[in-house]
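Newbie here. two chains, one complex. Structure please?
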Amino acid sequence: MKTLQVALGERAYAIHIGSGLVGDPQWITPHLAGQQALVVTNETVAPLYLDGVLESLAGIRHHHLVLPDGERFKTLDTVNLVFDKLLTERHDRHTTLIALGGGVVGDITGFAAACYQRGVAFIQIPTTLLAQVDSSVGGKTGVNHPLGKNMIGAFHQPRVVVADTDTLDTLDDRQLRAGLAEVIKYGLIGDRDFFDWLERHMDALLERQPALMSEAIRRSCQNKAEVVAADEREAGRRALLNLGHTFGHAIETGMGYGAWLHGEAVAAGMMLAARMSVGLGWLPAAAAARTEALLRRAGLPTTVPASLSAARALDLMAVDKKVQDGRLRLVLLRDIGEAVVTADFSPGDITATWESAASDAAATTATPQGA
Amino acid sequence: MKTLQVALGERAYAIHIGSGLVGDPQWITPHLAGQQALVVTNETVAPLYLDGVLESLAGIRHHHLVLPDGERFKTLDTVNLVFDKLLTERHDRHTTLIALGGGVVGDITGFAAACYQRGVAFIQIPTTLLAQVDSSVGGKTGVNHPLGKNMIGAFHQPRVVVADTDTLDTLDDRQLRAGLAEVIKYGLIGDRDFFDWLERHMDALLERQPALMSEAIRRSCQNKAEVVAADEREAGRRALLNLGHTFGHAIETGMGYGAWLHGEAVAAGMMLAARMSVGLGWLPAAAAARTEALLRRAGLPTTVPASLSAARALDLMAVDKKVQDGRLRLVLLRDIGEAVVTADFSPGDITATWESAASDAAATTATPQGA
């Protein structure tokens, strides 16, 4: 078992990474705010891990809520189901919400915790690779709006993150690959050694070798924890974590939430960022080629969906949270391990990048499995 | 013009109180976060003051949204209308939301600002006495849930509060009286001199004499600002500001949002708190009589609605935000100017207080005008 700290002063918390953690009360009980808890999970995760978590809460008054599974349910209406449950069961403001599931469950539960009675405690038990390496750490919570992804939300830090690597055994391959997109992202943004390590070990990671998987999660969380500690509310450096996300959100919103997994859209988005960086003369073509090769080895899409035009994508990108006074900013690459936030490009550069990716795609089959 | 400061470190802000402030850009412009703003108001206030506010924003890109008027619209659905407008008009996270109206507009707009893109700036321009002396100051924002008032929300401080006393001229008498309930509350909680002052000047306040009204607002805001600065997130002393509110919320929720004005329900709730304090032997009967006399002079209800049983009220109070591990806490009185938060009573004390108020009420006509 490995433990990392997210250094946020009075909001500091631990991330525990290891095997056999779910259902062991020692990782949860010390962090409960009072004598009540609500476990929020979804219909896929509930049959696998809910009983274990509920047993670990045997000493206190607790309830659970099982949500439908999928990004398309990451809405204000679903958050309201959490409020309904909390009020019906009379949870007070000393309750603790426990998110058991992937990124969608974590985002919804965290946002509900941020808003219920103006803020209650919450705990993250992420059960997907993507949630373990990214969404469960850092306190970003929220839901989608039909006009934009994650447009409604709050910064609300968990009290502890319990990442049980055993839960990855039940993850389907597509979800595993989607999580690897965010793992690769940390290498691209600021950890070139980690990128090299991923190139060496990608095949073993796809085989889910436990020691390597655990190390990939630890290294990813460490990267994220450092950035979050330095810039909790994304005034600066934290924006780098959005590499691939502005393009990716356009794909997710444009295709309808859930058609592409978030990690798949981020993979395609990172490749678009790399292409655009090459086009602007910032990134060596060889670095973009290495990026593409690693994403492909991970089984991730590296191009855009044929049905989404460049014009529509540009339109969707205009509501991105990094827009400032009408001007879009993007995370682009100067090298592997060196990302920058910049507005130093024209809309035409985006359109050209998108269309070149689309025309390459026409000759290949790089859309995600199941999409 | 008087200016008070709410001392909250990097979230500190000014409250400007005076005549002719709405429409004067000097009170607004320095506090805008960027080059965009959305003014949120309601159908009652819009014809009176919206044009003036929009003119003061002439230099920047701005939009406005007119909501229906009334507590029954203080819902998550109405907050979503604000998100729809912001996204349709492509406001980015450097926008500023400006709440122009009473407490409902302020609560909805502040909560929307807290959640839009995980938090944007907002400004309060309160146009009712209740909003000027209470809800616009202190950063409590939120909406109601069918099972409880203000159950969903956030702490989100405004950048400035602009309280224009001229706007009180257009307030109807019932709204004015409802505001006076919160003014009287500050005297009861911790400012006995102010209570004495209110006894001397209640008739002049009901006649809206400008100098006295301005002083009542200043003194109320000063009381509130001191409490908020000492305890922003209501870990302790701030709970005293809820005198009358636990009983009052039960009345508001039980009668249907909007049937009783918030201030009316708080007035009845404060009188119930005084009655219960007398019953427990904590408060001299003479102090309760003075409280009742002042509330009645202000034209406020001092008893409970006949149609709401003690059992139902107790049930509604069980979801109050001051409940802790199943135990209800109330703000009660030791004297005029000396309130305490306590759990040192039984449910039977509440029932007895409620029923005694109801039986007194049967002999009088103390329900609010219009309810």
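Moderator note: Chain A touches chain B through 37 residues (CB under 8 Å). Chain A has a mean pLDDT of 94. Thread marked as resolved.
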